Amino acid sequence: MKMHGLLAATALCALFATASAQDEAEKKLYCWNEGGRKVCGDALPANAVDAARTELSARSGRPLARMGEQLTPEERAAADEAERQAAIAANAEAARQRRERAMAESYETEEDLRAAFGDRIVLVDEGLKTSRLGVANLRQSLVSLLRQANDLELRGEPVHKALADNIQSQHRDLLRQQAIMRQQLEERASLDADLEYAVERYHALKAPTRR
């Protein structure tokens, strides 16, 4: 009986020790920022529940978890939008890198690359010639129509509706053609810069990898 009592007492002590160790292991310390300073404690006050904090082991001081600050719906929406924009930028950068690799693989020499850009430049230049000619013709036609209307007014005669409508139509066509020509001029100006950048990237991608 004494032996049985001793074993029971030993088992009971071991059980209490295990429970005590588990309680100790479950105890945490919390650290958070409050008023610009770091505050730590074994309990988390209500005003710090939504704050960013670090949870530490009370026994070892080892960090157990890091909790981010709770966001309002507006802040969460802004964070989601920032994440979406970052993903778009990352995808655009990946697409650019794919294009550059394809460029390096498509052209054997720099001359081939310049020739490809040369074809684009020729097309834009031809379009510019057509636009300049169209603008000149429309301007000349509009000036002629305005002169007719001016002569009628000088003679004290009304400008009939057909002539007025024609003037407005020619003016709209002229503005439209001028807008097209401005776009072509911008594209032509960017082609030179695009070519130099493409050549620079081409050499960088074609260069042997340094060991």
UniProtKB/TrEMBL annotation:
Signal peptide bounds: 1-21
Highest taxon, organism lineage: Bacteria
Keywords: Signal
Protein's name in the database: DUF4124 domain-containing protein
Species this chain originates from: Luteimonas viscosa
Lineage: Bacteria, Pseudomonadati, Pseudomonadota, Gammaproteobacteria, Lysobacterales
